[in-house]
Structure formats: structure tokens, C-alpha cells
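pasting for the record
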Amino acid sequence: MRITIQDAQIAIEAGLHAAAERQVPSAVAVVDSGGNLLAFASHEDAMLAGRDLSIAKAYTALSLRRDTAALAESVLPGGPFFGLNTALPGKPLVTFSGGKPLILEIGGQVVGGVGASGGTLEDDEAVSAAAAHAVLELRARGGA
């Protein structure tokens, strides 16, 4: 099963809505299972760096199949994945909050990733969670 453009748009809308509720200008990105950008949107006054970071967070969550927040300590000196965040030239891996893999509840298939950036780590975590939840909830109900 693949993530569709419609799925990605639902995630983007939910993420931007969550960011607006938190009064945080943000950028939200969705990648498919191959790491290709499916959808992206940002508030007009979102930070420019946040736009690139949201895409990188989505890619990281997909490629490592875990929340980016879970990676922070593991890439520090002495951690099991020290240096991972700089290991792939041209494909930055972001190892702090704001990226979520899109994992289907039935079967555990990873169908994509979502990333959000623009606020604090807590803001980015909440925005990406809202985006991921919206599309996964729709899929669980048999939509899109």
C-alpha cells in the first residue's frame, strides 16, 4: 500500500492547522516510501531554514523508520550511532524532534514520513504528530 498525494495533503493541512493553533509559523513536508517529496507547504512567515529542515526530518523518519526525536541521544559522542547525522553527504539526517514515519497500523508497513519545522522542538513534535495522526487515522478508517 502506498501513500497518495491526497494522503499527503491531509497530513499537510492537519500539520499547518496544529501549527496555527500553537501560533507557530511552520513548514510541513511529506515524503513517500522512496523518499520522494509528495507534498510541502509552509506558512508565509515560516523560517526559510524550517522549510529545508521539514523535508530532511520527513526523509530521516522514513529512512530510519523512527521518530527523529528518538535519535537525539544516540548520535552524541559515545552513543551507538555517533556520527550518523553526518554520514550521508547530500542527504542530511536530522536527529531532533519533528519527524515521524508513517507506519500503517495493520502490518506495520512504512509508507512515508512527515516532517515539521518552525517552532521549538516541542512545537515541531506536536505539529508532526498531528500531521501523521491525520493521515494514519484516515487510513485506519479505510479512507483515501
